[in-house]
Amino acid sequence: MKKLVPSLLLMMALVVPLILFWLLFTHFIFSTIVAALVSIVAGWALNLTWAFSTVNATQEEPAPDNSNFFPIALRFGWACPTVLVFLEWLIWHFTLGSA
């Protein structure tokens, strides 16, 4: 059960920025940059939450390869949501946007 929560948080960190960008950009007519920034920050926050939950989930069972992902997520947690939002924007721009 302790491994389920971090896995769900990681999946949410991948899916929530895509859904949020699509909703903000298409339904609420936000600027593209504002919608992208809000989506990236939400994904980054979920990545930080995932990293924090992995540290808490593995504290009871110490292992020699127990690594702390929080500093990595703090520095680079924005990268994956940025790439996902950019790819979503490219797909929307070149397929649905030209229709």
Q: How many domain units?
A: 1
Number of strands: 0
Distance between the termini: 46 Å
Strand content: under 5%
Structural class: mainly alpha
Instruction: Please estimate the helix content.
Output: over 70%
User: Which consecutive residue ranges, at least 5 long each, have pLDDT under 50?
Assistant: none
What composes the largest sheet?
none
In N-to-C order, the SSE pattern is HHHH
Average pLDDT number: 85
Shape: elongated
Rg over CA atoms, rounded to whole Å, is 16 Å
Determine the number of helices (DSSP H or I, runs of at least 4 residues). 4
Characteristics:
99 residues; mainly alpha; 4 helices; 0% strand; elongated; membrane; transmembrane; transmembrane helix
SSE map:
Layout: H1 4-27, H2 32-57, H3 70-76, H4 79-96
In short:
The protein is mainly alpha-helical and 99 residues long.
What can you see in these coordinates?
- This protein is mostly helical and 99 residues long.
- It has helices spanning 4-27, 32-57, 70-76, 79-96.
- It has one domain (4-96).
- The longest helix is centred in the middle third of the chain and has 26 residues, at 32-57.
- It is elongated, with a radius of gyration of 16 Å.
